[in-house]
Amino acid sequence: MQHCDITIVGAGSAGLTLALLLAPLKLSIQLVEKGPAPEPAAAEFQRVSALNLASQRLFAELGIWPGLSEQLAAYQQMDVWQADSFGRIGFSAEEQQLPALGWICDNEQIRQQLYQRVRQAPNVQCHFNSRIQRISQGEQNVALQLDSGELLLSRLLVAADGANSFVRESLQLPLTHWDYQHHALVATLTSTEPHQATARQVFWPDGPLALLPLPDSRQVSIVWSVPPARAQELQALPADDFARAVTAASQSVLGPLQLASTRQLIPLRMRYANQWVQGRVVLVADAAHSIHPLAGQGMNLGLMDVAALAELISEQLEQQLEFDCPRMLARYQRWRKSEAQSLILAMESFKRGFSGAAMLPKLLRSVGMTLLDQQGGLKQRIMALALGNQGDLPKCVRPGLRPASGAVNQSRAL
């Protein structure tokens, strides 16, 4: 039997980030992951995420950005348009007076960099290839029974175990969910023309196609959201036929394309836990919410969850209060649920707004995009929120601010 302060279930980007944020607080931390530990390997870009400025600031504070930046692609421009229409809107780092609008990163590279830092923390113990057999709560602790027979007792349990969270399901926490009736088709393609560090997205009546720049100036990662039957049809096409289909859907913006990887299909579903806290258990990141990849904000939203939780725990300890205080956990739930709800509603409105091929709605969308592109003030505010420069952000990721004390600053000493 092992006693600890906090157990984190899930060693994805959110769980590892939380462990790294909390380690300098000298709490005893157990990290439980059903899969293997991340192994050093070259980036394959099979699954990618778009990191915004808030996430970049978080990773810079944690000390992993220098290593991570060698494996990612910065993009200086975004180009969004409606197929077969005049509707178009563009964003650039230059007009925002920034070096980049964001970065496309291999998900596994993020895990590798985080894990290398976590391994240096003497108060974090990792249990990989470990499955949970049973969860039970008492007044003083949460008990996890692992398949190895080991029993972990902790004062606080954080569920960072993804959209199909075992912890959430075991505790029967209520979940609101709906199927987007889309599958995301993900692949890497080689382009004839260089991508010019530009992220592109074209909207078709049956769903959007995103072309995300990779470190190679002639490679892009695509995320093509289409109805399930169409997605399966595209996945089954011969490689050359599939490449031609993507070229046509992208309106040849990068010239003829060639398939350079396997194709993955990912069902798209919205999940939102109605309750993020139960007793001594708290949900973060995809265990609490999963959203449409339309604006590439899923990774950023989850990272802000763990940064917020770490901030509140740090504040409790600085004030010599109990870090597992129910009042603090309620504050976390109110704070992050509000942010998640706003983004889920925005993505749903955006998705529905660009669906359908009827002529009048299509014309109105095109006019709206054109007007927004010309409205400098409103366009700037939208971008500031998407970039992570505005909103109710954790202190450690706010632009121009650095916390005077606490977990994030101290993490440099690990």
TrEMBL record:
Question: Which PROSITE patterns does the record associate with it?
Answer: UBIH (PS01304)
Positions of the FAD-binding domain:
4-342
Q: Which domain of life is it from?
A: Bacteria
Q: Does the keyword Cell cycle apply?
A: no
| Gene3D superfamilies xrefs | FAD/NAD(P)-binding domain
Matching Pfam families, A to Z? FAD_binding_3
- Which cofactor(s) are needed, names only? FAD
Q: In which pathway does it act?
A: Cofactor biosynthesis; ubiquinone biosynthesis
Q: Name one GO molecular function term.
A: monooxygenase activity
Q: What keyword terms does UniProt attach to this protein?
A: FAD, Flavoprotein, Monooxygenase, Oxidoreductase
Homology family: Belongs to the UbiH/COQ6 family.
Q: Which NCBIfam families match?
A: Ubi-OHases (TIGR01988)
PANTHER family xref list: UBIQUINONE BIOSYNTHESIS MONOOXYGENASE COQ6, MITOCHONDRIAL
**Protein name, please?**
FAD-dependent monooxygenase
Record organism: Alkalimonas mucilaginosa
